[in-house]
């Protein structure tokens, strides 16, 4: 059930009728005809741009098309009026009975808002993918929440989604991790150690060092790293991944796939991906132009193996092999995405941190080349999070040593609050996370405001049940009731827009708006007894009244579910 889609269908049918009558020419494309909420609610319940987008291809004035269309639409029982505004916009007012029928439809369909827009398309959403060198920090938290909510949103809109984590365990950083764990291992044997710059001094490695001691005893004490580096690296990486999995679980995030970068080396998989590009004449030997600005002292022109990424929109061609024959860091990333393409995904989405902005064009070029432009790659960047506590910036974690961890945030405010607050800004906008405001019980705290609306609904439903009353056929008579129903009508449309644009923050924004309309109705009922949901002397009126809040709860619960937040039925 999607009222906006239904009315758009009516608009398209009316346009078809005008074509059949000769009032519009044949062959018009109606794809850009939209029906949406008006910018100013005073103008009506819905608006369509049909006349504006069809005027030029039809060779007619927009107002002439709008007036002809208005005449057709007015014949439908759902349309009270169709008014032409400005150069040719058409504002529609719907019969009040439409809104009551919509509420009834929400209650009859627990899946209200779900869409088959995705048509089962296979989508891979890769997110978090933090180096396995320590606990997840607050920046990873935002990426984890965004990626997980996006995956849920796409599933809700009819896609077949795989949630994936790319383990960066093939680079030099895991060697640094191994050396850091070795120092903690020596410390566990009673030795004094010093952490040099570039190592990881966080307390979280103390337990790992002790666990290594328990496993190997003193076998590595006093030995050169050629004796222990590989084994300690594997041991430490697995320990960090256990920590990361636990962090994600605490946030309510569960991955379908953990893909190891290390598994690409020595298996021919990198070579296969590069050979695919070579077969398309996209790999060559060449010398890059010097970088812009001041040249690094060690820069020198040298021949390298390059990927012709400029053929696919990149600014410069990218090295995939160093002059010494070693792969660049880009080569395994190409191979990893080649693996995704060969797994048959219809769409790829990567969620990167803000510091990876320079990586977007080259990665998109690689996927376009590997898939021959068949598989689109969307890269979403999550901007920085600034934390505040007691009015001051909060920057330090005792356990991590240098940064605030995911666990610090979740332990402070809980997973649900963390997730909702992380989605109160678009992913590419910086976000301020204030611990005090996140727990505040006020309208200024969006997660509280939404949960409070849901709790109020369930309070009403419990009291109604005590009266022996269940939701019945809705009756909406007041403007405040209609506004709530109108906001409910926007939910299916909002889901599809948010899924299409890969913007789950739209769901959080919508829930706040819905809660605001509901609270406004509640407050109006405090002054107007006839608007109160519980009409204690009239069971039939109560049954009609409580249908609307029940519908509100259905949608709030669905929206919170997409965001990964458990709906609350009581505020404690």
List the keywords.
Gyrase A, domain 2; 572 residues; Isoleucyl-tRNA Synthetase, Domain 1
Provide a descriptive summary of the structure in words.
This protein has 572 residues and is α/β, with parallel strands linked by helices. Strands 7-6-5-11-12 form a five-stranded parallel sheet, sandwiched between helices. 48% of the residues lie in helices and 12% in strands. It has helices spanning 3-21, 50-58, 62-73, 96-108, 138-156, 172-188, 206-216, 225-251, 269-279, 330-342, 360-371, 406-413, 415-422, 435-438, 446-466, 479-489, 491-501, 505-527, 539-545, 547-563, and strands at 35-36, 46-48, 79-85, 89-94, 122-126, 160-167, 257-260, 283-286, 304-307, 318-321, 347-353, 377-382, 385-389, 392-393, 431-434. The mean pLDDT is 93. Among the domains are: 3-94, Arginyl tRNA synthetase N-terminal domain (Gyrase A, domain 2, 2-Layer Sandwich); 101-113 and 441-563, Isoleucyl-tRNA Synthetase, Domain 1 (Orthogonal Bundle); 172-251, no CATH class; 265-293 and 304-346 and 367-377, no CATH class. The protein starts with a helix and ends in a 9-residue tail after the last helix.
